[in-house]
Each structure stands twice: as structure tokens, then as C-alpha cells.
Design brief:
Shape: globular
Strand content: 35-45%
Strand order of the largest sheet: 1-4-8-12-15-18-21
Helix content: under 10%
Order of helices and strands: EEEEEEEEEEEEEEEEEEEEEE
Distance between the termini: 39 Å
Number of strands: 22
Structural class: mainly beta
Number of helices: 0
Radius of gyration: 15 Å
Largest sheet: 7 strands, parallel
């Protein structure tokens, strides 16, 4: 299943989902593609305007059954507050999940505590094929990311490549992180990302 704007249509999906997401994806082979041309234009904006623990999009596995072959690309994702993560891959219960061959590519991610948060259960091969590439997390001002651009935990075989991560919120006191490979992330690659001005 692919969700995308009609040809030549610039679309916006906005909701005020407190402690929830605008989109929650729970099945394999589901892709949100914001291009209205079949190219790389970002013609779909998804925004959660809630200020109560909002998220914009989440991909959620259930138990040990992995989500496979899905993802999101060519979208503008705007969260309602910078104390909550915008784009999330976790288990339905909010704990470490099971994923393979997921793609997060060419999105603009704005106003988040952590822009992209991916947490996989630590097991050989789990999380393989995760590609996070060509995303822009560099918005200046009120919509800037606050703490961490891309967080990856527990994945065996992730690739984080060609992302732009910059201009973080400078008002908060955290030690900002551009890309964070956390506990259990193995056989993974960080390559050719542009990271600067994390204390904007």
C-alpha cells in the first residue's frame, strides 16, 4: 500500500492527536510517499498540532512479528512541540520492536525532541535494512529540532546516510546529538551526513 498525493496536488494532513500520532502504521509494505510527481518533491505535509506528547508518524510492530518493507519518503513532518519525538519506529507498546527493510528518505522533519527515533529489539538480524537517507533536520527557529536528530537503538544493519542535521534549539540545556547509535546497534553505517550548529 502506498499513500501519496494525486498528481500535481500539494496536500496537507493536520490533526491534534494528544499522546498519539496522525498516522500509526501497523502493517508491512505500507509506504507514505509525499511526491506528487513520482520524483523527490515534498508535496505532502503531515502535522500534529497537539502540545501534549504528540508524534507525527509511527511504525509499530506487535510482538516478535516484524514490520517489513515499509517507510516514509518525500514528506514534511511537523510536530506540535519539541518535547516529543516526531517519527518513531517502536513496538506497539512503546518498547523495542521488530523491523526489516524500512526506509526513511528525503523528509523534512521539524519541531521535535528527537527527529527520528528507531528502537529495535536486540537480536541477530533484527533491524536489518533500515535506511535513513537524505532527510533534512535543519529548520531554524521555532520549528528546529531540540535534542537529537537521528536515534538508532538495537538495529543489526542500519545505514544513516546523506542527512542534513543542523540549527538545533539553543534554549534548552541538553548536550545535543546529531546522530546517536545507542545500545545494541551493530553492523551499521553512518556516512556522508552534514552535521553543524547543534546549539542554534
Amino acid at each position: 500500500v502506498t499513500i501519496r498525493p494525486n498528481a500535481s496536488v500539494t496536500a496537507s494532513i493536520t490533526g491534534a492527536s494528544a499522546t498519539a500520532q496522525v498516522f500509526r502504521i501497523r502493517n508491512s509494505y505500507v509506504t507514505i510517499d509525499g511526491s506528487n510527481s513520482g520524483g523527490t518533491d515534498r508535496s505532502l505535509t503531515i502535522e500534529n498540532t497537539s502540545v501534549t506528547t504528540p508524534q507525527v508518524v509511527s511504525f509499530n510492530s506487535s510482538g516478535a512479528t516484524p514490520l517489513v518493507g515499509g517507510g516514509i519518503r518525500n514528506c514534511n513532518l511537523i510536530n506540535g512541540v519539541n518535547t516529543s519525538s516526531a517519527l518513531v519506529l517502536v513496538d506497539l507498546a512503546g518498547t523495542a520492536g521488530y523491523f526489516n527493510n524500512m526506509t526513511i528518505q528525503n523528509n523534512s522533519i521539524q519541531k521535535a525532541y528527537i527527529g527520528i527515533f528507531c528502537n529495535a529489539f536486540v537480536a541477530a538480524g533484527n533491524g536489518s535494512g533500515l535506511l535513513i537517507a537524505g532527510n533534512d533536520l535543519s529548520t531554524i527557529g521555532a520549528n528546529s529540532v531540540r535534542y537529537t536528530g537521528i536515534y538508532v537503538q538495537g538495529h543489526d544493519g542500519a545505514v544513516v546516510r546523506n542527512n542534513t542535521i543542523a540549527n538545533f534549539d539553543g534554549a534548552s540545556g541538553e548536550d545535543d546529538r546529531g546522530i546517536w547509535f545507542a545500545t545494541g546497534t551493530v553492523n551499521s553505517t553512518i556516512d556522508a551526513n552534514a552535521i553543524h550548529t547543534l546549539k542554534y
